[in-house]
Amino acid sequence: MSLGDEHGSSGGYADTGQTRTRLPEGDPYGGARRGGRSSSRSLVTVVGVVVLLIAAIAFANRGGDEASSTDNTTDKPATSSTAASGTKPVESKAGGFPAGFAHSRQGAESAAANYSVALGSADMFNTARRHEIVNTVYAPDVAAGRQSDLDGAYSSEKFLTNIGLNKDGTAPRGQTFISRVIPVGTKVTSAGSDSATVAVWYTSLFGLSGEASTNPVSESWYTTTYEMKWVGNDWKITDFQQKDGPVPVGRDQKASTADDMTKAVEEYGGFTYAR
Fold it and tell me: I want to staple 221 with a disulfide (CB 3.0 to 4.6 A). Which of 4, 97, 187, 247 is the partner?
């Protein structure tokens, strides 16, 4: 049974120009005011490089046939594509995250969105939780051989220092580490009976909130395309590619204080995603 007709990949996006952010008087987290957006850009660059490095290491020697795709530029999502489907959401969990997705296009999209949330969470900086996540979202033949590489990337002292964390991946005293992925939309670009390629467009929050933080929480936009395989009655990741954007034009809003940001993270829980 096929998961459905294939869809072409989306085209490129034009430059959106500069994003403006208006800060409150002084630095939003109590330190010296940052010059322009250089600190934010440096932080995003570091995170992006590490994510791409992990992807390259984890899948450099992958094998197997890939699902083919056929361009179809006229096949666009219907206006009801974001409406609830009526399909019952998953109820089971593995590693603390939703599991047991439907063997369908919708199931593949839900799995990819949920896996994005897990892989972009602060839990990836905790060894035990990282192992649970990796073993949950990746196909066994991928996860088993790549765990040590992921451990090396996320425990790099240089990387942790650059983003303001302690050597053990925890936040300094008086600060809160924030790493969240918020999916905005998903689409299946190709599908077979037991495989699917799913693109997830999302925004992410990353940084440290606290009076002494030199890396205030910033927003970034990415699209990650996952190669998914039906393994053990669930969807699993076998490969992925990440790119920047599409990035919306930022509104001229005042950045929140460190206290407001910390309270928001503590009071507002994250979502799980099932359509």
Answer: 247
